[in-house]
Each structure stands twice: as structure tokens, then as C-alpha cells.
Amino acid sequence: MDEARDRVLMGPERRSMVVREADRKVTAYHEVGHALAAQLLPHANRVAKLTVVPRGRAAGYMMPDADDRLHVTRPALEDMIAVALAGRAAEDIIFHEITTGAQNDFQQATSIARRMVTEWGMSDRIGKVAHATDQGTYLGGGAQMLPMSEHTAARIDDEIKTLIDAAYTRATDLIGEHLTRVHEIVSVLLTRETLTGEEFAALLNGETLEPLPPATPSTPPRIAG
């Protein structure tokens, strides 16, 4: 069931893919950054799985627990943005470099922030006014911005940036506070390649995992030095 879920959501595993060790390390810190924020922020969905095994177009991924709530609060949305940006925050803290790995994260964070401001009336500065609608769009296509002045559009852009900057600061502070534990978890993740949510929570609490059982003969992933 887990494999079927992962295949549908992320695509097939790509264990034959040649991955540089430096890229595996960046991926590990990136995904542990997501996982740390998901596990510690009060309104975020907890970690279900964490892996550095490439799957589909992803070099690795953090899968959160399924979320069945009908209504999402502003604090929960702010935590979602922080979780989305925490991977990039971890890269920034550890490597002091910018990579292309956070492209989808930025798109997700920006989409949430924009909807908070333009659709859900969650901006005190912009007010409880709808500036976008998803009604009457041809074949879906997402929300369409309503007519507005240049001044209002600029204020909306400023508010979106404010939400994202605040979330990025929260993620950076959280990772910096738990940096020693981040290093420890990354070391384990690079060795085991995949962690369950329970294993990640145990490591975050300073516990030690049971040794892995002897591996059955298989084709190992090719790692480029």
C-alpha cells in the first residue's frame, strides 16, 4: 500500500539514477528541514515518511500525514508556508548557497500566501475583500484575479512577500535552534535512505534506532563520487 501510494503521488523509484554524493547530502538536509518544521510547528501535519531515494522528478521527499480537516485556519496556513520553505532554509544555513531544488516549494508557498490575501480575507492590511475568483473559469484554470488598481495590486504583492518572509524567518530560526539534531538525523537518513514518521520522531527526541536487518541481495543505487 505504501509503495502504491508513493508511486501514484510521486512516481516510480529511480534507484538506477546516478546521484552525486554532494547532491544526496543537499537533498538530505533539504528534506530534513521540511520534516523538522512539519514535526515541530504547532499547526502543521506531522511527518509520515522521509527519503532521499529519487522518485519521479523528485530527488527525495518528505511526505506529511494525510489531512482530512474541512476548515483550515490562518495559523495552519502560515505553518504550511513555513514547512514549504524550511527545505530551502536548511540549505541556506548549511551550505550558504542557492540551488534549484526549492522551485516547487516556492510555488506552493506563494500560492498559499496569495490565496490568503486575495481569496480568504486573511490580510489585515488588504481587508476582508475578495480580489480573485474561481467562478466561471473555462476548464478550471485556477482562480482569476478581479479588476483592481495598480495601487491595490502593489499592496497585495507586498502582503504576499510579508507572509513569505515571516514564514522563512520562522523556518530559519527553528532549524538554527535544532541544528545539532538536524546534523544527526541527516547522517542517519543518508545511511538508511528512508525513515518512517515514527523513526524520524524518535531521532528528533534523541533516541537511537534499531539496526537495520541484513539486506537481501539487490541492485544497489549507483552513487557518483
Automatic annotation (TrEMBL):
InterPro entries according to UniProt: Peptidase_M41, Peptidase_M41-like
Positions of the Peptidase M41 domain: 17-202
Pfam families: Peptidase_M41
Highest taxon, organism lineage: Bacteria
Listed Gene3D superfamilies: Peptidase M41
Residue ranges that the Swiss-Prot or TrEMBL entry lists as coiled coil: none
Record PANTHER family: ATP-DEPENDENT ZINC METALLOPROTEASE YME1L1, METALLOPROTEASE M41 FTSH
This protein's name: Peptidase M41 domain-containing protein
Originating species: Deinococcus daejeonensis
